[in-house]
Write a structure and sequence with these properties.
Blueprint lengths: L9 H15 L56 E2 L17 E7 L7 E12 L3 E8 L2 E8 L3 E3 L11 E6 L2 E7 L7 E8 L2 E8 L3 E3 L9 E10 L2 E15 L2 E6 L2 E6 L3 E3 L11 E6 L2 E11 L4 E6 L4 E5 L3 E2 L20
Length: 341
């Protein structure tokens, strides 16, 4: 897909700056440059495949790289945002006009780099697009979001201390853990945002509990076969699930929307509070690599992981999972929410 032209010369530079913020995750140091887009998935991989470590991860030692990273700021484009070549499925949005809802929409202009956010829905168009209002100061922009890339706000049935959650904050999202039991329709969440450790009371309907199922916003791993000279090998890549139907799944990887076979997608065990010594896989740039938890940081919001090549990196909770072949077999799924009438 080609980015839509912008009437503002600064839009392209802004998109690059925001993309770096998106890749930086919860780490404190600047991230490495984003990788080139990989070839499309050609076949689902067996669940027992094990990632092969690359030469070194020292360049990304303190960066947490994932599409799940929060974005510190957002400036909208000057005109309506439409996904002209959306590949489907065309679904009735499960959200209602006049309410706030989750949306996956552009960071700046084009649909090549997306973010998760909670925004007001102004209308439903053609029974397949939810129109969201993006406000920045006195400027307002409409984003026409496919129904499959939206989700209604819905409070979790139950939350306990240390549960892993995704929350809406700062015009984007962040990952953290419950710090205290819910009260007065809010829950205190501890998380890292733009490099800082924070706690705040979040409305319950802006909290998504990460329970190990494949649902909107869940951190996932998806497999691809990659050509390396005369050989092909299976690699596992980190992402966030947006929607699954008809044996296909939309995932967000480094902000980019990718459609892959559903059989290639597995949930990451981010709900697990890992301990020092645990065997894990950790996101390092575009690939999940095997390692061992060396240190638990921020009460389980981040981990320092030692890789098999003896290098170390620090990763936020949404980038760390038990080895996929030990994560519980076939993933469980939750049905997409029904359109609200």
């Amino acid at each position: 897909m080609q980015p839509a032209p912008s009437s503002k010369p600064a839009s392209a530079a802004l998109a690059n700056v925001l993309l770096l913020g998106c890749l930086a995750g919860c780490g404190d140091d600047p991230p490495p440059p984003p990788p080139a887009p990989p070839p499309p998935a050609t076949a689902p991989a067996p669940a027992a495949s094990t990632p092969r470590p690359r030469a070194s991860a020292s360049a990304a030692a303190s960066a947490s790289t994932s599409t799940a990273a929060p974005i510190a700021s957002f400036a909208p484009a000057s005109g309506p945002l439409r996904w002209a070549d959306f590949g489907g499925p065309d679904l009735e949005p499960p959200v209602k006009a006049g309410e706030r809802a989750w949306a996956v929409l552009p960071v700046s202009v084009g649909w090549e780099t997306l973010r998760f956010a909670v925004l007001p829905v102004t209308k439903i168009e053609d029974a397949k697009l939810a129109v969201f209002e993006i406000a920045s100061g006195d400027t307002k922009t409409e984003a026409f979001v496919p129904g499959a890339f939206t989700a209604p706000l819905q409070p979790p049935d139950k939350l306990n201390i240390d549960d892993a959650v995704m929350i809406a904050t700062g015009g984007a999202r962040a990952f953290g853990r419950v710090a205290s039991p819910p009260a007065d329709q809010k829950v205190k969440v501890r998380y890292r945002f733009a490099g800082s450790l924070e706690e705040k009371d979040v409305p319950l309907d802006e909290v998504l509990k990460l329970d190990g199922t494949l649902k909107f916003g869940a951190p996932v791993a998806f497999s691809e076969e990659r050509d390396e000279g005369t050989k092909r090998r299976v690699v596992w890549r980190p992402g966030s699930l947006v929607h699954s139907a008809d044996g296909k799944a939309w995932v967000i990887n480094f902000g980019r929307p990718i459609r892959v076979p559903l059989t290639a997608v597995k949930p990451m065990t981010v709900a697990t509070l890992h301990r020092a010594g645990d065997k894990v896989w950790v996101a390092n740039n575009e690939e999940l690599l095997p390692g061992q938890v060396a240190e638990v940081q921020d009460s389980g919001i981040r981990y320092k992981v030692k890789l098999e090549d003896s290098s170390e990196l620090t990763a936020s909770l949404e980038n760390v999972t038990a080895p996929i072949n030990a994560a519980g077999g076939a993933p469980s799924t939750q049905p997409a929410p029904a359109p609200q009438k």
